[in-house]
Write a structure and sequence with these properties.
single chain; 5 strands
Length: 80
């Protein structure tokens, strides 16, 4: 795991969320344990595009970090 992914994972684990740039496009990785008006119980990590609000769900933080590392090669600063 490179330094950027390590930092991203640590910040997300400490704060339950982290925001970052990918090709100058903002994204957030956040833990979602209760969702919606019906208080739907979930225990997942979401990768959210902060412009379109599209999301991708991951079962755990390690899975999310692995996917980000494999699919978002050009990352900018962490914004958390």
């Amino acid at each position: 795991m490179n330094e950027t992914m390590h930092t991203l994972k640590n910040v997300a684990a400490e704060r339950t969320w982290v925001s970052f740039l990918h090709n100058d496009h903002p994204y957030s990785l956040l833990h979602w344990s209760i969702a919606g008006t019906q208080t739907e119980q979930k225990d997942i990590w979401l990768l959210q595009d902060e412009v379109s609000f599209e999301t991708k769900e991951f079962q755990n933080l390690d899975e999310a970090i692995l996917w980000i590392g494999q699919n978002m090669h050009v990352m900018g600063d962490e914004l958390a």
